[in-house]
Amino acid sequence: MRVAALLSVAMLGLCPSLAFAMDSSDLTLKTTEDLYQVCSVPADNALHSEALSFCEGFLLATASYDYAISDREHLKRFICAPAGVTRDEGIKAFVDWATANLQNQKYMDEPPVYGAVRGLAAKWPCK
C-alpha cells in the first residue's frame, strides 16, 4: 500500500550528536537549513518532542503532496519509498542528505519543501 509507505517515510528520525540551542521561535521554517535544525534537535533539548513532531508533520505533508499531485502521466513523482520504510528511516534520510549538503548554501537557503523533496528523493528516487 503506497499511502502507508509514504506515511512511513515522513516519520521520526534523530541524529542526537548534533547539539544546538533551540527555542519555540526555531519552529518557524523559512529555509532548508531551518528544517535541518528542527529535524536534528538532540534528545536532551527541552523542545525535542515538539521539534520532532513538527519535522515529522512537515516531511509527511511533503511526501503526501508529492504522491497526491502526481498523475503518473503528466506529473512525475519524485519520492518513491518502498513499503515498510520506517519513521526513523524517513527523517534520517533527510538529515543525512542535509548534513552532506550543509556547505551548499544554494540548497540550504531554498524553501524547506525543496530540501525535504531533495533529501527524501535522494534516498528513494523514482525510476
Short description:
By secondary structure, this protein is mainly α.
Write a structural description.
This protein is globular. The protein has helices at 2-9, 32-39, 48-69, 87-100, 105-109, 112-123. Helices cover 54% and strands 0% of the residues. It is built from six helices and no strands. The chain has one domain (2-13, 26-123). By secondary structure, the chain is mostly helical. Helix 3 packs across helix 6 and helix 4 (87-100) packs across helix 6.
Topology:
Elements: H1 2-9, H2 32-39, H3 48-69, H4 87-100, H5 105-109, H6 112-123
Helix pairs in contact: 1-3, 2-4, 2-6, 3-6, 4-6
Query: Which word captures the global form?
Result: globular
Report the portion of residues in β strands: under 5%
Helix content: 40-55%
Number of domains: 1
Radius of gyration: 14 Å
For this entry, give a set of tags:
single chain, 127 residues, mainly alpha, 6 helices, 0% strand, globular, disordered N terminus
